[in-house]
Write a structure and sequence with these properties.
By secondary structure, the chain is of the alpha+beta class. It has a domain at about 20-140: Roll (Bacterial Protein-export protein SecB), CATH 3.10.420.10. Helices cover about 35% and strands about 35% of the residues.
Amino acid sequence: MADEQTNGAAGAAEPQGTQAQFNLQKVYVKDASFEAPNSPAIFNEQTTPALQLNLAQNVTVLGEGVFEVVLGLTLTCTAGEKTAYLAEVKQAGIFSFSGFDARTQDMMLGIYCPNALFPFGRQAISDLVQAGGFPPYLLQPINFEALYAEQLRRRAQEQQPAADTVDASFAQPGDADKA
């Protein structure tokens, strides 16, 4: 009976060699920084802090089907007119793909990879903020699927035929956004 299960498992594994494959090879912090330019005075401020999160993503081709994806997270906390802290993490990962069409691979790079990296970046930001003497901050989940859909929408707008756009020879910077 054990031989039959082994043979069945081996037989099922052979077709997978031709199927699409995705691997997360490595997760690492590429860069991290923390600044508290107004400390220690900022610890005595009695104002409600305002937080702003900026996201960035960079994809670099390392080889055939191998990509480095870097998710940049920058959290800025202000108290009144003063910056309480600035925490920045560039969380990176190496991902490999094979057997995917270009559209699916682009989608995976834009949705799945940042989703895989975000929990690590969120933890790194929280650790930096707490180590800086501030209350721990846990970033809320981010809908990378919606962000990717917005990115696709912007790409489609940029690729509209020239007849649908403002004549660039007469346009001032920012005019295309107003049209």
